UniProtKB/TrEMBL annotation:
Coiled coil: none annotated. GO terms for molecular function: dioxygenase activity; metal ion binding. Gene3D superfamilies: q2cbj1_9rhob like domain. The keyword Coiled coil does not apply. Keywords: Dioxygenase, Iron, Metal-binding, Oxidoreductase. Homodimer. Its cofactor is Fe cation. The keyword Iron applies. It holds the Pfam family PhyH. Belongs to the PhyH family. This is Phytanoyl-CoA dioxygenase.
């Protein structure tokens, strides 16, 4: 009997020809780009992120429906771009990151305008930016597809990704410290195939590398089996997720008024304006309803949030 070899994650340099990078991503749905960020850039980011991890570990309590999603012994903080703007924005300035998003999140659509066919090309924007610190004892995270946060039903290999997930390694990421488990090729699976841990391989990458997977690839954080005394026991990664820019309001209504005007509005109105986290978690700010976390609405008491699910 022919033994099927385990799939692996391909690593190429961030400066490899873009055709090669895209070919691997189309085939496997996952890739690691080495030398995406410099040692100095990562050291600076780690230093500035540290107090935000400490604050999140002390204070952040996830909303009920997301409690089971993160693995144990995992600290995350949301809105990395708000917490560490300068350093995070540098990571979003690499050409290769934009070339990948252009390829997978900028679909062309056409429609009739009268008797004329009009073609439009979409684009992409930042979906979420999240920092992760995973400590010894963390278990395997449930295997999932990030595209599901768009809540567009995937039907099979013909469904394009609606999200592309990228992770900058803040430390050397290894199988032992919980490198993400991924299933290369699962973006092409039929929808009725469920993921299993034995289908997975591990994303291992050096500090400063960028792990990329399409949102329709199954993956989940790996278990961290390091001893707490191991100096490389913590896994720190910075997630920069992008989505197609058609997932947005027609007008950017959260920018329409001054905070004092929003303070006078009822929760139902603030919800439709965008100060609200959807049931998939999208639209959150600081991991919660922006009505609770945005500084401009500090002290807001417009009444009960009638749509909140208990
Ligand atoms: O921690 C990881 O390796 C993966 C996290 C993840 O999959 C997610 O947040 O969607
Ligand atoms: Fe994920």
């Amino acid at each position: 009997m022919v033994q099927q070899s385990k799939p692996t994650v391909q690593t190429v340099s961030a400066s490899a020809p873009i055709e090669q990078i895209l070919e691997i991503l189309h085939r496997d749905g996952v890739i690691v780009l080495s030398d995406y960020a410099t040692e100095e850039e990562i050291d600076a980011l780690n230093a500035k992120a540290a107090p935000h991890f400490d604050k999140a570990a002390r204070e952040f309590k996830p909303d009920d429906k997301f409690k089971g999603f993160r693995a144990s012994n995992t600290t995350v903080f949301y809105d990395l771009i708000g917490a560490v703007p300068e350093d995070t924005s540098k990571l979003l300035q690499r050409k290769v990151w934009h070339q990948v998003m252009e390829e997978f999140l900028s679909p062309e659509t056409w429609e009739w305008y009268g008797e004329k066919k009009e073609v439009r090309k979409g684009s992409y924007w930042l979906h979420t930016s999240i920092a992760y610190k995973v400590g010894p004892g963390a278990g395997n995270q449930v295997l999932h597809r990030d595209s599901n946060s768009s809540m567009v039903q995937r039907t099979g290999p013909e469904s394009p990704p609606t999200v592309v997930s990228t992770f900058v390694a803040g430390v050397d990421v290894t199988a032992a410290n919980g490198g993400t488990h991924v299933i290369p090729g699962s973006h092409l699976w039929p929808q009725d195939r469920a993921p299993k841990q034995e289908d997975c391989c591990t994303v291992e990458m050096k500090k400063g590398s960028l792990g990329i997977w399409l949102g329709n690839v199954f993956h989940g954080a790996g278990s961290n089996t390091c001893s707490p005394t191991n100096p490389n026991a913590l896994r720190i990664i910075y997630g920069l997720f992008a989505t197609s820019d058609n997932f947005r309001q027609g007008e950017n209504t959260v920018l329409a008024c001054k905070p004092e005007e929003y303070m006078k509005m009822t929760p139902e109105v603030l919800k439709v304006l965008g100060f609200y986290k959807g049931s998939s978690g999208t639209g959150a700010f600081g991991g919660k309803d922006p009505i609770k976390t945005w500084k401009g609405l500090e002290g807001y008491n417009g009444g009960q949030w009638i749509y909140e699910k208990k």
